[in-house]
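Appendix C reproduces, verbatim, an entry submitted by the partner laboratory led by Prof. M.T., so that reviewers can inspect both the input and the predicted structure.
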Amino acid sequence: MAPDKSGLSEFKAHLKEYYSSIKHGESEKILEGIQKLVFFAGSTNDTLDTILEEAARTIYRLFEFKEILIGIRDPKDKMYRYVISIGFRKDADQKLKLIRYTKEEFFDPNIYPGIWISKQTKYFLSEDEPYDDDEIDTFNRPLIFQELRKSGDEFREGDYIDVHIFGPRGEMIGWIELSNTRDGRIPSRSSIFWLELIAAFLSVIIQKEELGLRGRADIRIGPN
């Protein structure tokens, strides 16, 4: 007995529309953005800084943060430094690029107090003063530090989030630093999840750079 094909054309049209390139939700939009970043990194022989800058721009486009920093561990002296910034004043950006951190400064709560909100991400509150006096000039609006927090979901000047980038043995090889959301509220849990996924991807790129492997045809990530 032949199958009933009534309504088949309508179902085919529905499938085509449903799986079209038009994204129907926020998750699909984010996945598409991350996919483009992966393909970009896998199809270019540009410098590590170029890939990290594209990662920062991807984060800026996809998520709620207005200020984004990406830093890496210097393979020579093992100090940590900022290499990419988006959303900062020129003078603040210049001062940020001069700062060097030790590993202890990221993990000793007596130096920079913060709250671990996951195994990979640390949240810093401006009230805890998680910065040195020299770093105050790197904030866009430092005078706001003196104001009281208006609500429990406010993400205020001086608050920031570090998403750590770890290597295969658990050592920190870089980090993504995020501040000032567009709506002034704390970022969503889903945003943190996606950013940790991006950090995991950047871990691979940074490791390959350190090992001198990035750009070899046999380890490319994206399509040819």
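Confidence is low (pLDDT under 50) at residues 214-224. Additional entries are available on request from the coordinating office.
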